[in-house]
Amino acid sequence: MRFEHLGVEPRIHPDAVIAATAVVSGDVEIGPDCQVLHGAVITSEGGPITLGHDVIVMENALIRATATNPVHIGDHVLVGPMASVSGATIDDEVFLATGTRVFNGARVGARSEVRINAVVHLRTTLPPETTVPIGWVAVGEPPQILSPDRHEEIWDAQRELDFPGYVFGLDRSTPDLMVQLTERYGRSLARHVDDLRVD
Description:
alpha/beta
């Protein structure tokens, strides 16, 4: 399913194959020989998304851009089932395994591997040919790659990255943080009410 969002329709190369149950919405450009499988969602929430050539987006993966964080995915990239990429840059020949999460402002260098259920956190840059092991977390600049049992170290690095401030423009210490966050984000997402299906 393809949707015009905020007045922009997806641009899909004729050699790309988009499954009937995939959703492609808004300012999205998909290059030649890409494959977008069933249940995948590629949605521009105000910023552009570009996929190079020979990109595979597997079942139930999510790719989302924001007005402040576009998404660029290079050539020969595999985005695994149930993986998500939000406002990040993925260089060429990267493998994002099942269930990986890549957050806003992150960059994954060429020929890197982010293995099953691993995380590349907010504003983290992985140099080329980096591996994030199964379930581990890459966080900070320069990145630390930490096992999930090292939560306090992950949190120390993550806190300075300021997820609510960077992504939502809100101070973490705001007493009604979730009230403000959900109301503000909800207003932004409500712009989908005017989407037009174009296929």
